[in-house]
TrEMBL record:
<dbReference type="GO" id="GO:0045214">
    <property type="term" value="P:sarcomere organization"/>
</dbReference>
<dbReference type="InterPro" id="IPR003599">
    <property type="entry name" value="Ig_sub"/>
</dbReference>
<feature type="domain" description="Fibronectin type-III">
    <location>
        <begin position="557"/>
        <end position="650"/>
    </location>
</feature>
<feature type="domain" description="Ig-like">
    <location>
        <begin position="1289"/>
        <end position="1367"/>
    </location>
</feature>
<dbReference type="Pfam" id="PF00041">
    <property type="entry name" value="fn3"/>
</dbReference>
<keyword id="KW-0393">Immunoglobulin domain</keyword>
<dbReference type="InterPro" id="IPR036116">
    <property type="entry name" value="FN3_sf"/>
</dbReference>
<protein>
    <submittedName>
        <fullName>Myomesin 1</fullName>
    </submittedName>
</protein>
<feature type="domain" description="Fibronectin type-III">
    <location>
        <begin position="456"/>
        <end position="550"/>
    </location>
</feature>
<dbReference type="Pfam" id="PF07679">
    <property type="entry name" value="I-set"/>
</dbReference>
<keyword id="KW-0677">Repeat</keyword>
<feature type="domain" description="Fibronectin type-III">
    <location>
        <begin position="328"/>
        <end position="423"/>
    </location>
</feature>
<dbReference type="GO" id="GO:0031430">
    <property type="term" value="C:M band"/>
</dbReference>
<dbReference type="InterPro" id="IPR036179">
    <property type="entry name" value="Ig-like_dom_sf"/>
</dbReference>
<dbReference type="GO" id="GO:0005198">
    <property type="term" value="F:structural molecule activity"/>
</dbReference>
<feature type="domain" description="Fibronectin type-III">
    <location>
        <begin position="662"/>
        <end position="760"/>
    </location>
</feature>
<dbReference type="InterPro" id="IPR013098">
    <property type="entry name" value="Ig_I-set"/>
</dbReference>
Amino acid sequence: SPSPKRAKPTYLAVDKDNQIIGYVVPIFREFATGLSDTEEARVRDTAAYMARRNLFTSGLEMERSELISRKETMRESAERITLNKREHFKRMNEDSLMHAPEFVIKPRSHTVWEKQCVRLHCTVSGWPDPRVVWYKNNVALDPLANPGKYKIESRYSVHSLEINKCDFDDTAQYRVSAMNAQGELSAFASVVVKRFKGEIDEFLPAPRLGPVSEYGITFQTHIVDKFGVSFGREGETMSLGCTVIIYPALHRYQPEVEWYRDDVLLSPSKWTHMHWSGDRATLTLTHLNKEDEGLYTLRVTTKSGYETYSAYVFVRDADAEVEGAPAAPLDVRCLDANKDYIIVAWKQPAVDGGSSILGYFVDRCEVGTTHWIQCNDTPVKFARFPVTGLVEGRSYIFRVRAVNKSGISRPSRVSEPVAAMDPADRARMRGSTSAPWTGQIIVTEEEPAEGIVPGKPLDLQVTEATKNYVVLSWKPPGEKGLEGVMYYVEKCVSGTDSWQRVNTEIPVKSPRFALFDLAEGKAYRFRVRCCNSAGVGEPSDPTEATTVGDKLDIPSAPGKVIPTRNTDTSVVVSWEASRDAKELVGYYIEGSIVGSNVWEPCNNKPVNVTRFICHGLITGEKYVFRVRAVNAAGISQFSQESEAVEVKAAIGGGILHASPAPPYGITVLECVRDSMVLAWKQPTFIGGADITGYFVDYREVIDGVPGKWHEANIKAVSERAYRVSDLKENKKYQFQVRAANMAGVGIPSLPSNTFLCEEWTIAVPGPPYDLQIREVRNDSLVLLWKPPVYQGRDPVNGFYVDIKEADAPEEAWRGVNTKALEKTYTKIKDLKEGEKYVFRVRAQNKAGVGKVSDVTEPVPALTKPGTKEIVVDVDDDGVISLNFECGNMTPDSKFVWSKNYEEITDTSRLSTETKGTKSKVVFNRPGEEDIGVYSCLVTHTDGASSSYTLSEEELKRLLEISHDHKFPIIPLKSDLAVELLEKGRVRFWLQAEKMSNNGKVDYVFNDNVVSQGEKYKMNFDKNTGVIEMTMESLTPADEGTYTFQLQDGKATNQSSLVLIGDVFKQLQKESEFQRKEYFRKQGPHFIEYLSWEVTPECCVVLKCKVGNMKKETSALWHKDRHQIKVDEHLGFAEGVLKLEIAQISKKDAGVYEVILKDDRGQDTSTLNLTDQGNFVRIFIFAANSSTPLKITSTDEGIRLYTFVSYYNDLLQVTWHYKDSAIAFSDRIKSGVVGEQLWLQIKEPTEKDMGKYAIEFYDGKGGLRRTVDLSGQGENRARVAGGLPDVVTIQEGKALNLTCNISGNPVPEVTWLKNDREITSDEHCILKFESGKFASFTITGVNTSDSGKYSILVKNKYGTESGDFTVSVFIPEEAGSKKK
């Protein structure tokens, strides 16, 4: 019998799901043992095999020998097979066999430990045989460059890369590239090298983009000479261009150049022209419109990869044709096209011209014509409109204009052409190619056959409803005949059964219809009938009642706006999205320079993100921003203005980091078979806004090697606890958590510890979680926690709190409470100020005390500066409230009130009011239900919080106060008081807080009611509440008690004032004095009595201010009772009398007097200038006029001097040196020349350096002017260095000494020997060179040269000397002395 056909062998290894996971090397017939792998394994288990193996020195050598033998056999067999294949392929048509490379088996990713080896392998098919190259992070691997590190093999279409002794740097993404003449293909695999003892990096480095080598050529692309952020105006032409350098430069090589706007590929059109010159790519926008605004990207693609560059283009509105008119709408497009109507949609402009937009006009134009027709008579506010009255088959373009009270805007850019026909007809349309193009599409239909009456339309529904129109849509009946079906639409007011046909004249051909002229606010139902030549069918099922009005609401205003510095001309603006916004189109952003109140749009095309970079700002200016949301219904209100931000480059290049930091402290709260409940701690930095939720990831850990991360929740969770489901029992997992806010999702936390997913069966509770610390004070704080998720065998019945110092050992934990707490909060007292503490909590049930919670972060027991407490208040209406104020709030801060540390949500008993930095809760109906602990937490602060315990006793006290306030006595702003009026009249008065017109007052003196009369005058101003009683004067009989008694309905009050004894006598005396003063001022009198002042010229002026003068009034001056003759120094003008004493001296001392008198009376004023202190104080004014102490150089030395405006012998002057009075001598003298006071220092030396002062003394204190003479040392003559103290030299030797001389002017140099001047000669040569160097040279010394030498330098700023001694010895004498 014929042999059965053998199945084609396969060498692919697959898993249970038939997924290829590797390859199997075939066992060839020539294999040495002739056994399969499984048979060989059984043989290895036999005793004979074990004996044979023992013949070898080690099992490793035997396996290595067998491996080599197997490889040699496999290679020989494979080479024969390959040779046969090549001969076969040569005889076949080569073109039919050629194909691009294909990976039969792709390399797999590996995770290995350090110092292990890893092998990546793959199987590649293709003809001709592909060339395979391995890459590490896109860098080609060269085994020769790293001998022993990499081993690359390619055999029988199986290619491998072996990495020897992996280290941590081998963690990378590896790519294998296969290429032949038909193409190129790559596959990727990752290698993760992990450290021992759990020190594992939890992420792979991102692959680096780089050049790809193909056919031996690697293209490197560079984009230079780039276009930047650009600004244009509607109607202008703009060109964007970049120079592209491609290396190596191949002749006629054409890269792929593409332009994108907002990630949408642009195609050449009448609006966009593209050009490639061989080294420069250019995009020309021929006629700018706001639709052209966006992010433009140039992408240059070569066979080695691609390079991109992006920049934003802003398009500003063209000037309005009518002042105050709005900007043009934008992005006009057709949403739905049918035979009977086309729905046109557009976007509202950002600029309304200063007044709100009333609506929009839609214009149409038939393609091929230039005649525009307005489609709506009245403006429509909704940004969608169905245009009717179209000719079927013809094409139209549309434009939109906005209108406000000032006028109509420019028209928008026209839409793309669209034909008025059903979508089904477009598939069957045939255009006339012979006739010239008119914009009309000729539609042919099959010849109708004899029809039947159609059935009811199906699925009738209202697809869109506004106050201007309603759009219906339906499906044709399923059993319609061959003839085309048309439709009648009927309407009915809801609540009635009176149906009215809408399209009475012409039935509609499309299964859609737009209804106009419906009454806004009324509810309608609709139905549709089918019709054809056979008749009109039954009506469809009516729709539900639809109220005519805009179903789509205008979006709410966006939330908090956060500006962040970016560059010197741009700011990043982020905001919270509008809540519950439907069909949102995007957002408009506006900016304004602080204080200008002029708002400019930052974008003229809506952006559909919540973060935008506003460009074109003025560097250094401060801006505020606001945002509006847009949908088809309209534009929202503006958001609140942002905080001001200065436009300047941000630290770090303007990168915005507003997302939260990673959470931490991941723990397990409960574990069942297939799920685990996790808890974690809030990030230490929450970013630029409140945290909106958390995302949890998990991964399985197998044999210590983590797998891939998987998302546990797609929607963010708001709590810091989450149950991760769909886990596998008895498997180990790690978890990570990310926090999110409006700025984005933060980086993930560090992976948690590895947790085993097994069901907890312990009887005691799990750990409490979410420990929070509030109300930190110097000696106390409040600890809050949440009960454990895992209750144990029985419910939790209490909690224990432990405490220890932060740096104390574990043995220092001690309990705060000995009796279990029932509540999930406690106040911990008796803390040590400044000490840091940590806390933990344990729960208990009947079985015992459970696991401990996570330990809190260390917290110091310190009351933060500015901390305030909750204050209870009862207002005048008896309303009880709790008040809290926070002084360190941020713009994001909010007050959160809680009762028993649970947020207050029930507003029936409590009302919350917040204004600025103050917030309060008001008790609506205070009662026993309100007893508890009330707390207030201020978010976005450094833990600002406080609490107030409302106990039963405290509630009773507050209710009593509230009752008193509800039924008060008449409140008084001030009690009864007394004051003196003009002429010494006496006024008794008080002021009531509030009194009605029915209020009355009784005036009582010594228990007797007094009334209006000659002695008493009463007045009650009910508007101000001021009650007063006046008396002309006081007599001894008026001593006693005065009382005002008030009554207003049932409310009463009184206030008394006791005037007896010394108090009454003092008041009576003052009244008499005021009375006399009044009469004194009826004639000429002194308003200001005689006084003196010193002018800047140190002249003394006596002056007084007088009043009620007339021409006949005389003013007489006297000194020591002798009248002073009137001269030019005596004058009277503008109510002031003056007497000027120039160069005052002791002879001017005396008593000065001025007498005013006329027929109405006289007044006198005196001034005593004989007082020594008074007289000396006059001369201290001269001292105050002294100038700062200055220094000047003279021929004799240095002079210190100051000037005064006037000098007199009474001006006591003392000179000081270093805070000691100077003892004057012939060298140091002082004197006065005119108004100059001077101190002369003759021939100053270094000893004269220091602080000098001149002091003017007035008997009590003094005025001192100082100067530091140290600074003059820079110009004084000096000897600096070079001269020794003693020079011992042998007779006959040459002596040469040099020293440095300084000073300005150049000093004179004199040499002395034994205090006698010497001159230069042949034996002793003296030189002074360059004004700086002085030298002393003796050509051959002898014993007569011994002695004391000095150099003396001198200029006008001082003299200085340098001394040295020369000792000459004879050698023989020196030797004999030694002996």
